[in-house]
Design a protein that fits this description.
The complex is a heterodimer of chains A (170) and B (653).
Chain A: H1 2-20, E1 31-34, E2 39-41, H2 42-45, E3 51-56, H3 61-76, E4 83-88, H4 98-104, E5 110-113, H5 118-123, E6 130-134, E7 140-145, H6 151-169
Chain B: H1 2-16, E1 20-31, E2 38-49, E3 52-61, E4 70-82, E5 85-92, E6 106-107, E7 112-113, E8 116-125, E9 128-142, E10 149-165, E11 169-183, E12 190-205, E13 209-222, E14 230-245, E15 248-258, H2 290-294, E16 303-315, E17 319-329, E18 332-336, E19 342-346, E20 361-372, E21 377-400, E22 403-407, E23 410-418, E24 428-436, E25 439-443, E26 447-469, E27 474-493, E28 495-499, E29 504-507, E30 517-522, E31 524-526, E32 529-531, E33 534-545, E34 549-558, H3 573-578, H4 582-585, E35 601-612, E36 615-624, E37 627-631, E38 634-638, E39 641-652
Classes of the chains: A alpha/beta (170), B mainly beta (653).
Chain lengths: 170, 653
C-alpha cells in the first residue's frame, strides 16, 4: 500500500510539474565539445536565434529516423537564425564512428559530443531521442521524448510557431 | 514516507523560487507468474543558480529489477564555477581520452556503476586544462544470482589529467592511483591491491582525416601478504584513424589490451588486472536489432586485441549504407601440455590471430536504410555474420616420441676371503653384493600428434524493417528478424586424451600415427536428439498515431533452446488470440498446460501513450524471452519474463 501511495504521489507531482513546466525555465549555459574539435556553449548558440537540441547515438534507431527531418529544418530555417544541435551520447565503444556517420549523411546541423552523458544528465536527455526547443533568450519552450513516425509534423509546427512569434515580437 | 514529503516540499519550493531547475521521473513496475517482481521509482533534479549547479537523484526501489532495494538519496553533486576553475563535490563521473584509464558511468540496465564519491577540481585556461579527482568508490559485481550483486570492490582513488590543445592537435597525460579492497570469490575475504595507471593520449583533426591514439601502462601490487608483495603489470593501446572522401567515411580502429591472461575465464580471485574504471572501446558493432544483440561477443578487456573497419556512405544522396568488419583474438595462443595444463605462446605479429587456440572472433554487418515514396516509407535491410571460438577443451599440435624402457639391472657378487684368520686355517668367506641398476631406454621415431577440441559459435542474421506513415498521422510498421545459429564442439587430430601414465598424448590408433579424424557435434539438443541449427525469428507489428500513441505486438520464437530450457509454463489469452485458438476462450485449454504450438514462443503487446509531449506511459503484457543483453561492452543475462505485466512512466520537466 505504502509503495503504491509513493508511486502515485510521485506520478501526480511530476504530472503537475510536467504539465505546468513544459516551458518557462532558462537553459543553463553548458559547455560542450563539438565534433570538429571546437568548443561551444549553449548560450552562444542561442545568440542568433532559436535552438533545437536533440540527444542521439549511432545505435539509436528512432534517433536516426528523426535526424533527417531535423537536418532539413536546420537548413530550411537557417535564415531565421534557427539551429539544430545534435548532442551525441556514443560511448567509447562507438565514439570513433560518429564523424564518419555524420559525414556520410551530409548532415549540416551542429554536432556536440557527450560521451559520458554529462550534458544529457543536466538537461534530462538520458532517454533518446529527447528534443528541447529553446528560444533566443535561452528559455525552454518545448520538450519532447521519443519519436513516433509522423512526429516531425509536430516538431516543425513548434519550430515555426517559435520563429513566427520571435519575428512578430521583433 | 517522511523523506518523500520532504523531497516533494523541496520541489514545490523550487517552483516558487527564482532558481532554474529541471527534473526527470522514471517509474517502472513489473510482475509475472515466475515471481519476478520489481518496482522502481527514480527522480532526478538539477538546480542552477548563477555559478552553482546541483544534482540530486532520489530512488525508491523495492526491489529494483536488478540490484539492492533502496529508499534514499542515491546520488548528489554540487558544482561551482569561478574564473577558470570548476569544483565538484559528491558523485563524480569523468571520462578521459577513450576510457583506457578512466571512463565512469552509471548504467542501471546492467547495474554497472563505477562512479566516485569525492571531489573534482578542474582548471581550464586557453589551450591548457588540468583536472584532479579524489574519492572513494564501492563497485558491485554480479555473481550467480542475476538480480542481486555479490562482490564488492572498494577503491580509494586519486587521479590527475592534463591536456593541451593546439588548433587541430591535442595531447593529454593521465595518472590514476587507487588502493583497492578486492573481494575474493569465496568467504568474505578481501585482497589489498595497489594500482597505478599512467596514460597518454593524443588526437589530430584534419580536413579529410582525424586520428586518435591512447596508451596506458598499469602496475598492480598485491599487499595482502606484507612481506611478499606480488606484482602484476599490463598495458593497453587503442588507436582510431578516420578518413573521409565526399559522402563516404572510413573508420579504422586497433586495440591491444594486455592486463592479464589465463586460459579459462578470470574469476574474482584473479585480481590486479584491469580495474572497473577502465571501460574501453570494444571494437564490435553496437546493434539495435534484438537478435544480433543476443549473439554479442563477451569482450575480454584484460586480454584481447583486434581491428575494426567500418565504411559509411550514401547512395543517390538518400540511402545510408554501412558495412563493418571486425576481427579480435586473445594476445596469445594456448597449447595443452596435458589435459589440465596449458601454456601460452605470445602472438608474433601485432594483428589478431585466426588460430582457434587464440579464441578468435569475427563479425561483419552490412545495412542499407532510408526514406522513399515521398519520405513516407522508411526501410532498413541488414545482414550480419558472427563467428567465434568460445573455448578450447584441448589443443595440442606437436611432435611426440614414445619411450621404451628395458630393465637390465643385476646383482654383482664379489667374494673375498679374510686373510686375518688364515694362520688359523680358518677361512672366512665374505660376499660383497651390489645391485647394479641399469635401464636401457629406446625411443620410437618422432611422430606428429594433433589433439584438438574447441567450441565454435556461428550465426547469420537478417533484420528487416518497414514503416509507412500515412498523411493523417497514422503509421504502420513491420519488422522481421531471422537468425540461424550453430554451436558445435569440433574435435580433430590423431589423439583425444593425455595419458598421465605414459606422460604423453595417447594415439587413437597406436599402430598408425597418421590415422586422424575430424568431428563436429552440435550442442543444441531437444529430448536428447541433436539439432544442427537453431532458428530464431522475431516479428513485430506497430500501429501508431503521431504524436499520441503506438501499439506493438511482438512475436519471438525459436526451435531449440541454448542450454537450460526456458519453456513458458503458462498459456495466456494474448497468445491464444494471436494464434486464433478459440478453444482457450471456450475453456477447453488449461492455462498451465500450454499446447505444443505455443512452446518456444513468446508473445507480448505494448501500448505507449504520450500524455503530453514530455510525459509517456507504456503498458506491456505478455512474455519476453530471456537472454544476453549487452550495453557499453558489459553483458548480463536477463531472466525470462513469463506472462506478466510491465508498466513504465517517464516525465521530464
Amino acid at each position: 500500500m505504502k509503495k503504491c501511495l509513493f508511486t502515485f504521489l510521485i506520478i501526480c507531482k511530476s504530472f503537475v510539474l510536467a504539465t505546468d513546466l513544459d516551458s518557462g525555465n532558462t537553459i543553463p549555459d553548458l559547455q560542450l565539445r563539438l565534433l570538429d574539435g571546437d568548443k561551444a556553449s549553449i548560450h552562444e548558440l542561442v545568440k542568433d536565434g532559436p535552438l533545437m537540441i536533440d540527444f542521439w547515438a549511432t545505435w539509436c534507431k528512432p534517433c536516426k529516423k528523426v535526424m533527417k527531418f531535423l537536418d532539413q529544418y536546420h537548413q530550411d530555417y537557417a535564415d531565421r537564425g534557427f539551429k539544430v544541435l545534435m548532442i551525441n551520447q556514443d560511448t567509447p565503444r562507438s565514439l570513433g564512428k560518429v564523424k564518419s556517420y555524420i559525414r556520410s549523411q551530409n548532415h549540416q546541423f551542429i554536432v556536440g559530443l557527450d560521451p559520458n552523458q554529462k550534458i544529457a544528465q543536466k538537461l534530462n536527455g538520458m532517454v533518446m531521442p529527447t528534443l528541447i526547443l529553446v528560444d533566443k533568450g535561452g528559455e525552454i519552450k518545448w520538450r519532447h521524448q521519443g519519436y513516433i513516425p509522423g512526429d516531425e509534423v509536430e516538431i516543425e509546427k513548434q519550430i515555426k510557431s517559435l520563429i513566427d512569434n520571435y519575428s512578430f515580437d521583433s | 514516507m517522511k523523506k518523500l514529503f520532504i523531497f516533494l516540499s523541496v520541489l514545490s519550493l523550487l517552483i516558487a523560487s527564482d532558481l532554474d531547475f529541471n527534473g526527470a521521473l522514471n517509474t517502472n513496475y513489473g510482475d509475472n507468474k515466475e515471481f519476478y517482481y520489481y518496482t522502481e521509482n527514480r527522480i532526478d533534479l538539477n538546480i542552477f543558480y548563477k555559478d552553482f549547479q546541483g544534482w540530486v537523484q532520489y530512488e525508491y526501489a523495492h526491489p529494483p529489477e536488478i540490484g539492492f532495494s533502496i529508499n534514499k538519496i542515491r546520488k548528489f553533486r554540487m558544482e561551482y564555477a569561478f574564473e577558470d576553475f570548476l569544483v565538484k563535490v559528491g558523485d563524480i563521473y569523468e571520462f578521459w581520452g577513450r576510457g583506457l584509464v578512466l571512463n565512469q558511468f552509471d548504467d542501471q540496465i546492467t547495474n554497472y556503476d563505477n562512479g566516485l564519491h569525492g571531489l573534482y577540481v578542474g582548471y581550464s585556461s586557453g589551450p591548457l586544462s588540468l583536472s584532479h579527482i579524489n574519492g572513494k568508490a564501492n563497485i558491485w559485481n554480479l555473481g550467480n544470482d542475476l538480480r542481486i550483486p555479490a562482490f564488492k570492490n572498494k577503491h580509494n582513488l586519486t587521479g590527475l589529467q592534463a591536456q593541451y590543445d593546439w588548433s587541430m592537435f591535442s595531447i593529454g597525460v593521465t595518472q590514476l592511483i587507487t588502493e583497492e579492497d578486492h573481494q575474493l570469490q569465496f568467504g568474505n575475504q578481501f585482497a589489498d591491491v595497489h594500482h597505478t595507471l599512467n596514460g597518454i593520449y593524443s588526437s589530430m583533426i584534419l580536413g579529410n582525416a582525424d586520428f586518435f591514439f591512447e596508451y596506458v601502462d598499469k602496475r598492480a601490487t598485491d599487499n595482502s601478504i606484507s612481506f611478499a608483495p606480488v606484482e602484476k603489470n599490463g598495458h593497453g593501446l587503442y588507436s582510431n584513424l578516420n578518413l573521409y572522401l565526399g559522402s563516404w567515411g572510413l573508420s579504422t580502429e586497433y586495440k591491444r589490451y594486455a592486463f592479464d591472461k589465463a586460459h579459462s575465464d578470470l574469476t574474482a580471485d584473479d585480481y590486479g588486472n584491469r580495474i572497473a574504471f577502465q571501460t574501453m572501446p570494444t571494437l564490435g558493432k553496437e546493434h539495435n536489432s534484438t537478435l544480433l544483440g543476443r549473439v554479442s561477443h563477451n569482450y575480454n578487456f584484460n586480454d584481447e586485441r583486434g581491428i575494426q573497419l567500418e565504411l559509411n556512405g550514401s547512395i543517390l544522396d538518400k540511402y545510408a549504407v554501412s558495412t563493418q568488419y571486425s576481427h579480435l583474438s586473445r594476445n596469445e595462443n594456448w597449447q595443452s601440455l596435458s589435459q589440465l595444463e596449458w601454456a601460452e605462446n605470445p602472438l608474433e605479429s601485432y594483428l589478431p590471430s585466426s588460430d582457434p587456440s587464440a579464441l578468435p572472433y569475427w563479425e561483419n554487418y552490412q545495412e542499407i536504410s532510408g526514406y522513399t515514396l515521398g519520405d513516407n516509407l522508411f526501410f532498413k535491410l541488414g545482414r550480419g555474420n558472427n563467428k567465434q571460438v568460445f573455448k578450447t577443451m584441448r589443443y595440442f599440435d606437436g611432435i611426440q616420441q614414445d619411450m621404451s624402457v628395458e630393465d637390465n639391472s643385476f646383482w654383482d657378487y664379489d667374494t673375498t676371503y679374510d686373510s686375518t684368520w688364515a694362520a688359523y686355517d680358518i677361512i672366512i668367506e665374505i660376499v660383497d653384493s651390489t645391485y647394479m641398476e641399469i635401464f636401457d631406454t629406446t625411443f620410437s621415431d618422432p611422430y606428429n600428434v594433433e589433439a584438438k577440441m574447441w567450441q565454435e559459435l556461428k550465426s547469420f542474421t537478417i533484420p528487416v524493417e518497414l514503416n509507412y506513415t500515412f498523411d493523417n498521422g497514422y503509421s504502420l510498421g513491420i519488422g522481421f528478424q531471422y537468425q540461424e545459429r550453430q554451436k558445435k564442439n569440433i574435435s580433430k587430430g590423431n589423439s583425444i586424451y593425455y595419458s598421465v601414465a605414459d606422460s604423453g598424448w595417447a594415439l587413437i590408433n597406436p599402430e598408425n600415427p597418421d590415422s586422424s579424424f575430424y568431428l563436429e557435434e552440435s550442442q543444441f539438443a531437444m529430448d536428447t536428439i541433436k539439432i544442427n541449427t537453431q532458428y530464431n525469428r522475431m516479428l513485430y507489428v506497430t500501429l501508431s498515431k503521431a504524436p499520441k500513441w503506438s501499439f506493438t505486438i511482438t512475436h519471438d520464437w525459436t526451435n531449440v533452446f541454448d542450454g537450460q530450457a526456458t519453456d513458458d509454463p503458462f498459456y495466456n489469452p494474448l497468445e491464444a488470440l494471436v494464434y486464433g485458438d478459440l478453444k482457450y476462450f471456450t475453456g477447453e485449454r488449461d492455462p498451465r498446460d500450454p499446447p505444443p504450438f505455443i512452446q518456444k514462443r513468446w508473445v507480448s503487446a505494448e501500448l505507449a501513450y504520450n500524455l503530453t509531449s514530455s510525459q509517456r506511459i507504456s503498458i506491456m503484457y505478455g512474455s519476453i524471452q530471456g537472454g544476453l543483453f549487452c550495453s557499453n561492452g558489459i553483458c548480463r543475462v536477463i531472466a525470462p519474463f513469463s506472462d506478466g505485466i510491465k508498466v513504465s512512466y517517464s516525465a521530464i520537466f
